[in-house]
Design a protein that fits this description.
Largest sheet: 8 strands, mixed
Order of helices and strands: EEHHHEEEHEHEEH
Shape: globular
Radius of gyration: 16 Å
CATH class of one domain: Alpha Beta
CATH architecture of one domain: 3-Layer(aba) Sandwich
Strand content: 25-35%
CATH superfamily of one domain: Gcn5-related N-acetyltransferase (GNAT)
Distance between the termini: 37 Å
Length: 183
């Protein structure tokens, strides 16, 4: 049987992760529009082709960011996205995660599996040492995802990030390569 190259950077039983492409715009924006109620007031992914092109362009071109689509292995549908932002190399070797599930995939464990794959990729090929997640305290689903992936609560930052017209409080969660290896 000939070996076939996977379209994914990493795979789990139900999902794989891959980088964003400009060609993903139509599916991504359709899923984002279908998921507006799920995302509000926590997150605002691009809803139009032009907004997606700008968003994906930063993730594709900027070396301080790495964007990953979480895709179902059966059919390849985009279940969500996980971005490693603010990548700092040198002595810090850290990145900040942002993520969102799409409504059709919410509550099915696909993002948990995808997050595990992204963490492995970040601590492997990206050579990062630490990942951080900043979450608004009322976002129970996001906090559960962070906690379930082994992130630990490190602190609280009042009025940390400007979202939806106001400065929002955030909890700071983190994981290191050593914590993951021992967990």
């Amino acid at each position: 049987m000939p070996h076939t190259v996977s379209r994914f950077l990493a795979e789990g039983p139900r999902v794989g992760i891959r980088h964003f492409t400009y060609g993903d715009g139509p599916e991504f924006t359709t899923r984002a529009r279908e998921s507006k109620d799920l995302h509000h007031p926590w997150l605002f992914p691009p809803l139009t082709d032009a907004a997606y092109a700008a968003y994906a362009g930063v993730l594709i071109e900027d070396p301080t960011r790495a964007g990953f689509l979480v895709c179902e292995r059966d059919g390849g549908d985009i279940a969500g996205f996980i971005n490693v932002n603010n990548i700092v190399e040198g002595g810090f070797q850290c990145g900040a995660l942002g993520y969102g599930a799409f409504a059709h995939a919410a509550g099915r464990g696909l993002m948990r599996e995808g997050l595990d794959l992204v963490i492995g990729y970040a601590f492997g090929p990206l050579r990062l040492h630490r990942l951080e997640i900043n979450v608004q305290p009322g976002n129970a689903a996001s906090i559960a995802l962070a906690r379930g992936a082994g992130f630990r609560l490190e602190g609280f930052s009042p009025k940390m990030i400007f979202i939806d017209g106001g400065w929002r409080d955030h909890e700071r969660w983190a994981i290191t390569a050593e914590t993951r290896a021992s967990g």
